[in-house]
């Protein structure tokens, strides 16, 4: 991989982390499809690097709001969502590994992930545009929260996005959270699931061989992006966050279509 490619990847990690911190989507939902479009690495390596970047960004963001006394995380809800997401993440990785064994062509795996992310993002976008018309719930049961988390974990882990837009949709619908509150809770859930995902990958001995400079650089730019994103989020209102979230969804949809065509 050339140095120019490293600089591009660092820039992608930074910008994705900025948007991830502002919108509460983690950044992996941007990093994964964008890096897939360059086809510099296989899907498993991209998922690992994306997850590490998201982990660094969410860790910074969650710690930052606590240090500044600005935390709006509902631990009674989001901790159980995170635990469920951690368990679901392990199932999602097993599903990905099964798919990896099923298809001899790595491009086919990328095509399946792109198609699944496309459908998921379309659904998320449709809900976001119509959410003012949809009656929301206020779920408090621990077991139900954990089950919802499992669904989140399976989808995010299989797709290699570390969390993503579906977190916000479920936080809006199932728990009636306001946008900025949902952003903080989403990042907390993603943090828990990413820690468990990394441990699961390491224990199974599936850590991919990557250049230290590439991994370290993405982690550093993930933290820098998280810091910049937190600052931006503090200066804009929820309506602006929603508009930015919709714009990001449209971009992801276009990238997914491009990746699907490329892989097929």
From TrEMBL:
A UniProt-annotated Pfam family: TauE
User: Where would you find this protein in the cell?
Assistant: Cell membrane; Membrane
Q: Which UniProt keywords apply?
A: Cell membrane, Membrane, Transmembrane, Transmembrane helix
- Asked if the record carries the keyword Transmembrane helix, the reply is yes
The membrane topology of this protein is: Multi-pass membrane protein
Query: What are its GO cellular component terms?
Result: plasma membrane
The reply to whether Zinc-finger figures as a keyword in the UniProt entry is no
In terms of InterPro entries, this protein maps to: TM_pro_TauE-like, TSUP/Inactive_protease-like
* Membrane-spanning intervals of the chain: 6-31, 43-65, 77-96, 108-130, 150-175, 187-203, 209-229, 241-261
Homology family = Belongs to the 4-toluene sulfonate uptake permease (TSUP) (TC 2.A.102) family.
This protein's name: Probable membrane transporter protein
